[in-house]
């Protein structure tokens, strides 16, 4: 029979009472506390040994912990900057190496020029006649400011038009270079090359009566646009300048005061309108070349594909108009002037820019709504602002030179002074035939149609008529020209010198002596008894009495190739995408390197890049083949200047490198100081902690032994109770 529930309950209560009343002796309690302290210290020591730090959190030592964190953060910031500083050092060193290599190429070019100067074999006693040639101030690729050296001509506002003059700037012919003239010959108007621009210039020259056969464009070996007269000699003049509508400088300048667009602004507010499917505004807008019909109803779409709705704002109306203008290929753009009135702007600039706005009749079944341009069919009510030309550009000019090498053109001089007016009225005729070499004879017609007033035909009108007919003849155009000498006598000459050039002129007025007029080349039929028809006049050119120095010509080619290598060397002197020796544009910010020295950016160094290609050094390709000492001397002078420029820039980069390297060393040392300071605040002395661990282990063993001894007295009492 087991114990009763009552006896079990009593037993449990007795045990609980005995447990809660257990007491430790003073010796036992003291040894227990000592053991606990030792265990705690041992745990701390072991933690320091495992982490290597005496301060692991703010609870250990707030001051040391946060100071250490601050020092470590600054060290990390400087370490991050150290990579940038190191890149700066390498970039400068790459540029310095580039300068060294370029200087070697310049020295080679100098040696080549000196070699040409010292070679006197077969040097011509003079030089051939030269054309008037104008070269752009900088290569097209350099002016473009793009990595691939192309220019963006995708809109009318991106304009590189040129004015060309053959009379010292008195009269000018504009060659337009923009989207309108280039789109037919260039596939991608955003990437137009120098060759494509030269081709476009020549195409317009060929269709210009004032320029056809007289001037041509090309691209030099150094990438510059060149324009030259077809004829040679001191009488040739050429001036090329940026047109007043130009926004691009192709090497011949552009207006200092930029040209402006034309605009047409609605006379009244445009947004206070109500549209529907049948009520809207119906306009025709033009840019001077193309006209576009605009329809604005509630269903008209905006750029985001949504409809205008019944109460659009002026901004919404402009948005919908631009959708239709773009679809039609118009160059006009619409904006909301002041947010209230529709404004049409031309993308073309200058005095040739145009904008027109007309109200057209509403379609059948629709009504006209006023969007600020009125509702009456015809010219809209607008405030027009004409496009304004930019300021005049001086441009570049050149004059040809006569031959001094004994060569000559074929020249026939008239023997009649045309100072007084010539009477070509009625049936009077002064015609003659002109033949070049063995080609067909061309009749140059001079009669009552030559001048504005036939009875008083001026020398200028006669000269213009002759040159016009020469230019219209395929065989003569560009090969023969007419002019007046100091005594106002006609001069007909070939444009090229040499023994192969021959001219023949024969009077061809007609058989009626009374109608014949002599302008300097004789009469076909004379009224003087015994005087027969005039003899044909002939003239042949002469070859040079000197010869071309082939050695110099070969050295000139070598020199030009060295210039190309100088440009390539400059382009290749980059490091990590930064090139201190080359940039595509004139903006020095394009290749300026900023090296930051401290964590807040207050300490830095801007290392300005330069342009040390052939253009930047002022070295231009040789065009005369080194045939004259003057050309070589000028080239050597340019090389001397380039050498000084290279040495000066090398010195500048050397100074920059010294500064950056000094800051690099300083940053490295400062980072080490910061890391050491941070470590001193938080790192534990492992030797000390190891000794502490050993001592605490011994103390722990002693404490356990002491606790065991303190418990022996109680164990003796327990033995007695047994």
Provide a concise account of the structure shown.
With 722 residues, the chain is of the alpha+beta class. Among the domains are: 29-52 and 685-719; 83-121 and 553-669, Up-down Bundle (f41 fragment of flagellin, N-terminal domain), CATH 1.20.1330.10; 261-385, Sandwich (Immunoglobulin-like); 405-547, Immunoglobulin-like.
Which terms summarize this structure?
single chain; 722 residues; alpha+beta; f41 fragment of flagellin, N-terminal domain; Immunoglobulin-like; 27 strands; bacterial flagellum; secreted; Flagellin; Flagellin_N
Can you put this structure into words, describing what you see?
This protein is of the alpha+beta class and 722 residues long. Among the domains are: 59 residues; 156 residues, Up-down Bundle (f41 fragment of flagellin, N-terminal domain); 125 residues, Immunoglobulin-like; 143 residues, Immunoglobulin-like (Sandwich), CATH 2.60.40. Helices cover 36% and strands 19% of the residues. It is built from twelve helices and 27 strands. Strands 8, 9, 12, 13 and 14 form a five-stranded mixed sheet that branches. The protein has a four-stranded antiparallel sheet with strand order 3-2-6-16, with helices on one face. Strands 10-11-7-15 form a four-stranded antiparallel sheet. The longest helix is centred in the N-terminal third of the chain and has 57 residues.
């Amino acid at each position: 029979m087991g114990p009763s529930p009552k006896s079990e309950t009593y037993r449990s209560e007795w045990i609980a009472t005995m447990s809660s009343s257990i007491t430790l002796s003073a010796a036992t309690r003291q040894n227990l506390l000592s053991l606990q302290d030792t265990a705690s210290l041992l745990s701390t020591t072991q933690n320091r040994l495992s982490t290597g730090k005496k301060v692991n959190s703010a609870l250990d030592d707030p001051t040391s912990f946060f100071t250490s964190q601050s020092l470590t953060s600054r060290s990390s910031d400087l370490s991050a900057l150290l990579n940038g500083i190191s890149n700066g050092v390498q970039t400068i060193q790459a540029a310095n190496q580039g300068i060294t290599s370029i200087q070697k190429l310049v020295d080679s070019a100098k040696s080549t020029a000196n070699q040409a100067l010292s070679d006197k074999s077969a040097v011509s006693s003079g030089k051939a006649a030269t054309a008037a040639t104008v070269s752009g101030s900088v290569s097209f690729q350099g002016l473009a400011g793009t990595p691939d050296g192309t220019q963006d001509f995708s809109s009318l506002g991106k304009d590189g038009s040129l004015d060309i003059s053959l009379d010292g700037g008195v009269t000018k012919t504009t060659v337009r270079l923009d989207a309108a003239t280039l789109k037919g010959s260039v596939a991608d108007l955003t990437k137009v090359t120098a060759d494509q621009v030269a081709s476009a210039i020549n195409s317009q020259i060929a269709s210009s009566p004032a320029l056809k056969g007289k001037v041509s464009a090309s691209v030099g070996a150094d990438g510059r646009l060149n324009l030259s007269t077809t004829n040679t000699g001191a009488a040739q003049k050429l001036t090329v300048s940026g047109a007043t509508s130009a926004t691009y400088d192709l090497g011949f300048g552009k207006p200092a005061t930029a040209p402006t667009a034309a605009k047409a602004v609605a006379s009244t507010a445009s947004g206070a309108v109500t549209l529907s499917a049948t009520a809207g505004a119906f306009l025709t807008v033009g840019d001077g070349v193309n006209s576009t019909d605009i329809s604005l109803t509630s269903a008209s779409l905006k750029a985001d594909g949504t409809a205008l709705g019944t109460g659009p704002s002026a901004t919404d109306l402009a948005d919908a108009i631009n959708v239709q203008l773009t679809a039609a290929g118009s160059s006009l753009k619409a904006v909301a002037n002041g947010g209230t009135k529709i404004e049409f702007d031309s993308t073309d600039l200058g005095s040739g820019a145009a904008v027109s706005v007309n109200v057209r009749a509403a379609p059948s079944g629709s009504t006209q709504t006023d969007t600020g341009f009125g509702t009456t069919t015809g010219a809209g009510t607008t405030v027009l602002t004409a496009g304004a030309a930019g300021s005049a550009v001086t441009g570049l000019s050149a004059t040809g030179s006569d031959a001094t090498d004994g060569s000559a053109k074929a020249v026939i001089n008239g023997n009649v002074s045309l100072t007084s007016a010539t009477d070509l009225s009625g049936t009077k005729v002064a015609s003659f035939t002109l033949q070049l070499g063995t080609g067909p004879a061309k009749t140059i017609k001079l009669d009552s149609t030559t001048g504005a007033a036939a009875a008083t035909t001026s020398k200028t009108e006669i000269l213009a008529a002759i040159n016009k007919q020469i230019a219209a003849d395929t065989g003569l155009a560009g090969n023969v020209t007419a002019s007046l000498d100091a005594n106002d006598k006609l001069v007909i000459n070939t444009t090229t010198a040499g023994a192969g050039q021959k001219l023949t002129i024969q009077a061809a007025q007609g058989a009626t002596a009374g109608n014949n007029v002599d302008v300097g080349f004789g009469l076909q039929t004379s009224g003087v008894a015994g005087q027969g028809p005039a003899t044909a006049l002939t003239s042949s050119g002469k070859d040079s009495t000197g010869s071309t120095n082939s050695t110099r010509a070969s050295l000139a080619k070598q020199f030009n190739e060295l210039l190309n290598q100088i440009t390539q060397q400059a382009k290749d002197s980059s490091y990590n995408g930064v090139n201190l020796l080359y940039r595509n544009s004139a903006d020095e910010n394009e290749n300026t390197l900023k090296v930051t020295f401290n964590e807040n950016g207050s300490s830095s160094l801007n290392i300005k890049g330069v342009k040390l290609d052939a253009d930047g050094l002022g070295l231009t390709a040789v065009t005369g083949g080194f045939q004259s000492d003057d050309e070589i001397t000028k080239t050597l002078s340019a090389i001397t200047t380039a050498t000084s420029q290279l040495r000066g820039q090398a010195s500048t980069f050397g100074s920059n490198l010294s500064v950056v390297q000094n800051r690099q060393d300083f940053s490295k040392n400062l980072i080490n100081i910061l890391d050491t300071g941070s470590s001193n605040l938080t790192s534990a002395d492992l030797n000390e902690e190891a000794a502490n661990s050993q001592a605490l282990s011994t103390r722990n063993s002693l404490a356990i032994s002491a606790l065991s001894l303190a418990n022996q007295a109680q164990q003796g009492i327990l033995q007695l109770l047994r």
